[in-house]
Amino acid sequence: MTLQVPRRVLVLGGGGREHALAWRLAGEAGVEDVLCAPGSAGIATTPGVRCAAVDPMDPAAVVALARAERVELVVVGPEAPLSVGVADALEAAGVPVFGPGREAARLETSKAFCHEVADSAGVRMARARAFSGGAVEPALAFIRELAAGGAGVVLKADGLAAGKGVLVTETVGEALAAAPAFLEGRPAGAPALVVEERLAGPEASVIAICDGTRAAALPAARDHKRLLDDDRGPNTGGMGAYSPLPDLDDAAVARVVATVHLPILEAMRRRGAPFRGFLYAGLMLTPDGPALLETNVRCGDPETQVILPRVGVPLAPLLLAAARAALPAETPAVLPATGDAAVGIVLAARGYPQAPRRGDRIDGVGAAGGQGALVFHAGTAALGPDGGWATSGGRVLTVVGRGADLAEARAAAERAADTIHWDGVHRRRDIALRLPPKARVPA
Ligand code: AMP
Ligand code: GLY
Hints:
Layout: E1 8-13, H1 16-26, E2 33-38, E3 49-51, H2 59-68, E4 73-76, H3 79-83, H4 86-92, E5 97-98, H5 106-109, H6 111-121, E6 128-132, H7 136-148, E7 152-157, E8 166-168, H8 172-183, E9 191-198, E10 203-211, E11 215-217, E12 222-223, E13 226-228, E14 232-235, E15 240-243, H9 250-270, E16 276-286, E17 289-296, H10 303-307, H11 316-323, E18 341-348, E19 361-362, H12 365-370, E20 374-377, E21 380-382, E22 389-391, E23 395-403, H13 406-418
Helix pairs in contact: 2-4, 6-9, 7-8
């Protein structure tokens, strides 16, 4: 079946993930023009990509831009515009949009809602209970109950927290001490805290293109969330990623699609909020099989930067078909990947994640690209007419190396990252360093 290719695509967002999306789509046959809003000066250096100073959080402005530019597909990068209804507005205006409506976006914006949907769909997550504002005693009682059964405890704030609302506790005392702060001063009757059993195992991100009914998984990837080597330091948005995963082969990914993505799609249809967009399953590969830790309603960052170079089929026509709720029946549950591997290293500014410093001059971006690495801009600013870049955000660049296997890809990424420097640049040195044994995870 030949799918229609969208000629003009609008990507919403302006980070490293959106740079990778715009780069990938602009490089595909039949895509003539990629517009990114707001994009960035770094994104605008990509051949075939233009940027427009329109705020993705303003649905009316996005609709106006899509109309003025006769855009044939809008792809939404971050979750925040989805949570304010940008996809609903575009759909109402008759513009094909790949990204869920506000109600379906609650799969990410509310941890309690995610558990509720997963429960109703029979999807395995950690044992958990949600507590509304002020319900301190019941929350403490549930923490004690989990601890009495020998489980560790994880506390999660309900609501968008940009990855910062999760506390993985080491002791029951720590959990009991920390829980009240999540609940005090929050409105009664609305979920404020999810208390979860702590699971153990390597993590994996399986992101699928969903059309409301069908799902087609992109290559699986693994993020490195902690700031420092050996998974020490605070959680961040993600300090690096790699794909493929030796411990999650295509057959295992297909089982994840069948046991996580498809049941969630069905549950969302039953609720009258069909999910169209990237459905991101954050998994923990436990000894009992994969458990769902969270759902996101978008691509991961930095996972996208290593996933998209490995997608072995044209992406743009699939996204348009899914936006129209019409992925062909013959779409494989796991999309074909290129035969190579990709490793992405995030270069972060001094002070990230608490208080990143801006304005440091960056050297070596061109040299890294000259080596064949992909350099995706996340938080850079152009230094003026003479060219050059300065830091302008927490995560500044993602450098992606490719190779025949993960070791080669890692070496290429390290070499390219070594050429880039600024005062205070921070990166992990162990991205894709210790690889898990090649193994199938029991389903
Ligand atoms: P989340 O935002 O829900 O993905 O949580 C952020 C990070 O916290 C995850 O990537 C895990 O590393 C950790 N985490 C979340 N839930 C659990 C859990 N139930 N058990 C152990 N670690 C968890
Ligand atoms: N890298 C994790 C995320 O995008 O949520």
